[in-house]
Amino acid sequence: MKRFFQVTILSAIYTFIKMIAGFIIGKVVAIYTGPTGVAMLGQVQSLMTIVTGVTTAPVSTGLVRYTAENWQEGKEACAPWWRACLKITLLLFLLIVPVFILFSKSLSGLLFNDNQYAWLIIFACCVLPFTVLNTLIASVLNGQQNYKQYILLGMLSVFVSTIFMAFLVISFDLKGALIATALNSAIAGAVLILFCINKSCFRLKYWWGETDRDKVRSIFKYTLMALVSVASMPVALLCVRKVLIANTGWEDAGQWQAVWKISEVYLGVVTIALSTYFLPRLAILKSSLLIKKEVNSTILYVLSITIFMALSIYLFRDLIITILFTDEFRSARELFFFQLMGDVIKIAGFLYAYTLQAQGHTKVFITSEVLFSALFVIASSFFVVIYGVQGANISYVLTYGLYFVFAFVFTNYINVRKDNQN
Fold first, then answer.
1. Which 3 state secondary structure label does DSSP give 407?
2. Which of 70, 157, 206, 421 sits most deeply, having the most CB atoms within 10 A of its CB?
3. What is the rounded distance in angstroms from the CA atom of residue 309 to the CA atom of residue 294?
4. How far is residue 367's CA from residue 112's CA, in Å, rounded to a whole number?
5. Nearest alpha-carbon partner for 406 in 376, 374, 375, 364
6. Residue 123 vs residues 11, 112, 162, 204: alpha-carbon distances, Å
7. Which CA distances in Å does 327 have to 22, 262, 264, 275?
8. How many angstroms separate the first and last alpha carbons of the chain?
9. Residue 183 near residue 165 (C-beta atoms within 8 A)
10. Do the Cβ atoms of 174 and 112 come closer than 8 Å?
């Protein structure tokens, strides 16, 4: 637990820097593009999450897990897993990118109700290799449990990308903001490449060569989970925004997106700490009972931190809106209560759901991700008609309330019972 707090403190500093960066970019974007621009940026961010998530699926959770399990035995023990990850990644890249480029006009029309942004989708695909390398290097550092370097390099990446993004937004208004959003992860990748390219673990011999089919199959399970994870909720968010735009307009969708963005930023304190410390930790534990004990011993600490941050955000929401945005976003203050309530429940559910990823429960994980993402969209379609923009936040609370119940029951009862039967 002491190490978890150390990682949490480092993650808090890292997230604080990301928050400041987010504040700067958010303010600049709000000034230069207004609520409509903020909503459009939300669409681009969801698109980038899907595209990068699909192509980096093998080098995310799976790479972290198997690096964590084998790192003590040396680089040679990790190499078969690294090769399997890289080969699947290259295959996905070659399959997905041509499709996105070919249908760029249709995707532009779907996202922005305008075909003129097809160039942005093509541009995003062109910078994807740097994004893939960013995830790959970060996952290896995370799997090695090299927390300090992992987080310090993340801080440097944020600093560099923030300066670059602010320059683009100020210089080119909405067009610059869209380009900056597409470039964000690629810039981080360039920074990591510069600092880690000479590390011995990134030599070509460890990443290219013969690959054991069993290793490929194991990584493919995590690839499927990552693909569903990166596609389900971002697609759900795209759909919810479309529901909001259709029923309330771009302005109100931008208000909702502003509050959602604040949640993403402050929750990074917890999610970065969990993904940095908790996933490798659970991957090492073999027993479902030990995993259950680890999660239950951590939940109170995690919820205490999350509730404190959520309460602080709620109490100072007017000040936050003033600092981050403009007077055009003043009505967003009414959206915080349900959003923050949903955030707390979401983190609790995420904590218990890490069991699914750590132990590779592929079918259960995929089914739950798809079902709860669909529930979020369906509930939003119903509640937005009745309650307006607030309906999306009510749907958020409902969806993650049910998600928490599912994850809690699985980790504490179903998973342990299956372990005992085996």
1. helix
2. 157
3. 23
4. 29
5. 364
6. 31, 16, 19, 28
7. 18, 16, 21, 36
8. 30
9. yes
10. no
Task: Please report, for residues 15, 351, 415, the alpha-carbon distance to residue 403 in angstroms, rounded to integers and kept in the order given.
Answer: 25, 11, 16
DSSP secondary structure string for all residues of 260-282 = HHHHHHHHHHHHHHIIIIIHHHH
Taking residue 305's Cβ as centre, other Cβ atoms within 10 Å add up to 17
Q: Which residue has the tokens 């004990």?
A: 293
Q: Which among 260, 266, 273, 235 is positioned nearest to 336, based on CA atoms?
A: 260
Q: Which two tokens stand for residue 188?
A: 């981080």
Residue with tokens 């119903």: 382
In degrees, rounded to 5, the angle at the alpha carbon of residue 347 between the alpha carbons of residues 157 and 297 is 105
Cα Rg of the chain, angstroms: 21
What's the pLDDT score for residue 364?
83
Quote the pLDDT of residue 293: 81
Rounded to 10 deg, the angle between the 2-56 and 213-248 helix axes is 80
Cα–Cα distance for residue pair 377/259, rounded to 1 Å? 18
* Bigger pLDDT: 131 vs 358: 131
Whether pLDDT at 331 is above 70: yes
Largest Cα–Cα distance of the chain, in whole Å?
Answer: 63
Nearest to 4, CA basis, from 314, 405, 407, 282: 282
The answer for residues whose C-beta is within 8 angstroms of residue 133's C-beta and 6 or more apart is 189, 192, 193
Residue 382, SS3 per DSSP: helix
Q: How far apart are CA 236 and CA 16, in angstroms?
A: 28
pLDDT at 34: 66
Task: Please answer whether residues 324 and 287 qualify as being in contact, where contact means their C-beta atoms are separated by less than 8 angstroms.
Answer: no
pLDDT: is 147 or 119 the higher one?
A: 119
Task: Please give the Cα distance from 344 to 400 (Å, whole number).
Answer: 9
CB contact at 8 A, 67 and 139: yes
pLDDT at 422: 53
Residue 315: CB atoms within 10 A of its CB come to 11
The length of the chain, given as a count of residues? 422
Q: Are 188 and 17 in contact (CB under 8 A)?
A: no
Asked whether the beta carbons of 321 and 332 are under 8 A apart, the reply is: yes
Query: How far, in Å, CA of 126 to CA of 128, rounded?
Result: 6
pLDDT exceeds cutoff 90 at 378: yes
* Kind plus residue range of the DSSP H or E element containing 376: helix 362-387
Nearest to 183 by CA among 195, 197, 168: 168
